[in-house]
Amino acid sequence: MSFDVQAIRAQFPILAQQINGNPLVYLDNGATTQKPDAVIDAISNFYRHDNSNVHRGAHTLSDRATSAFEQARVAVQGLLNAGSSDEIIWTKGTTESVNLVAFSWGQANLKPGDRVLVSAMEHHANIVPWQLVCAKTGAEVVPIPVTDAGELDLEALDGLLDERVKFVSIVHVSNALGTVNPVAEIIARAHRVGALVMVDGAQAVAHFDLDMQALDCDFYTFSGHKLFGPTGIGALYGKMALLEAMPPFMGGGEMIETVSFEQTTFNRVPYKFEPGTPNIAGAVGLAAAITWFNGLDRAAMMAHEQAVLDYAVECAHNYPGLTLIGQADQRAGVLSFVLDGSHPHDVGTLLDQQGVAVRTGSHCAMPIMSRLGVSGTVRASFALYNTREDVDALFAALDKVKLFLF
Ligand code: PMP
């Protein structure tokens, strides 16, 4: 197999359109990825032919919906190489997964004097839930410092890792800088002091092979919409023994075994964490995205992505008046920058007028912005369907932005 990027682009109907009179150049994949026909059709087919509630009805449609829903769980297990599909819990996405672990595990286990380490480059979704839980439990959230290059300071991490640290929650790939963190190493070091580790894989899942068993990760999470799947569906992986020991996060139907006013008992994992009607069509769509993704030549895809990102970084280095924010050795999917003397939002608006879609601002990661001395950046974020031509279009559009602004 090889990687025919034009054939891949042809499977994404949204990409073939004009924006403000120019061909769309979609470079906002860190926010959300576009969806191939295979995913759009799977969702449409589900609603046309199989829609029903899961785990409930004694009828054919409910059987079909339940089986599609549970097969989707197996697809996620395969994607993450988890030991069992029971270790996969459906959530709305990364944000809900972090809240689930922070509130369920954190409220049951954290006490005054305990510490939760997060890095200074986290998305707010991996900071705020821990702050909320620490405020309730008396534990403390402590940031792991980041270097000027936007890399995790591993020496500082070693200095912080002691018996007070009960949990480390760390981003795999920074959405603001593209930094790839050495998560296997971090997990090993944290385990040495007895701390558990959660990895936020929101920005990693579309770029790398993942293997929970090799990583020895305690919890891992991602959002379906960053992997060419629909919004509103994501998954939390957790080691079975940990999940079994954790109390429910939310109560309702399906998560119980028996309910009475004297005593309520809970369903087994994963259902204990899945009250109410889940996002069934979302799971079906995500399974279609995973099947589609698995059909690609992964090594060729990664080589293509690396080549496009390397080219973008090279263009950025040669571009007068552009400052790259984040210069980590290991980077994936993100080019974050400021144009000297301009506001990122103005740059983004002027790029949009030329059909180039980027994100601007603090990228829900205010602490890393202030650490690196900027209020925000322009972020071009790449997916497997982006090309060198997209990079050329970005820099040609930046030329016009500069003419307009200066
Ligand atoms: N963490 C990271 C690194 C992210 O990039 C995002 C999405 N921008 C999130 C968490 C939150 O994901 P979601 O909004 O899908 O819950």
UniProtKB/TrEMBL annotation:
Originating gene: sufS
InterPro entries reported for this sequence: Aminotrans_V_dom (IPR000192), Aminotrans_V_PyrdxlP_BS (IPR020578), Cys_dSase_SufS (IPR010970), Cysteine_dSase (IPR016454), PyrdxlP-dep_Trfase (IPR015424), PyrdxlP-dep_Trfase_major (IPR015421), PyrdxlP-dep_Trfase_small (IPR015422)
GO molecular function: cysteine desulfurase activity; pyridoxal phosphate binding
Name the UniProt record assigns to this protein: Cysteine desulfurase
Family matches, as CDD domains: SufS_like
Role according to the record: Catalyzes the removal of elemental sulfur and selenium atoms from L-cysteine, L-cystine, L-selenocysteine, and L-selenocystine to produce L-alanine.
Gene3D superfamilies per record: Aspartate Aminotransferase, domain 1, Type I PLP-dependent aspartate aminotransferase-like (Major domain)
Catalytic activity: (sulfur carrier)-H + L-cysteine = (sulfur carrier)-SH + L-alanine
Requisite cofactors: pyridoxal 5'-phosphate
Domain Aminotransferase class V: residue ranges: 25-394
Keywords recorded for this protein, A-Z: Pyridoxal phosphate, Transferase
EC numbers for this chain: 2.8.1.7
Similarity comment: family membership: Belongs to the class-V pyridoxal-phosphate-dependent aminotransferase family. Csd subfamily.
Organism annotation: Reinekea forsetii
SUPFAM superfamilies recorded: PLP-dependent transferases
GO biological process entries: cysteine metabolic process
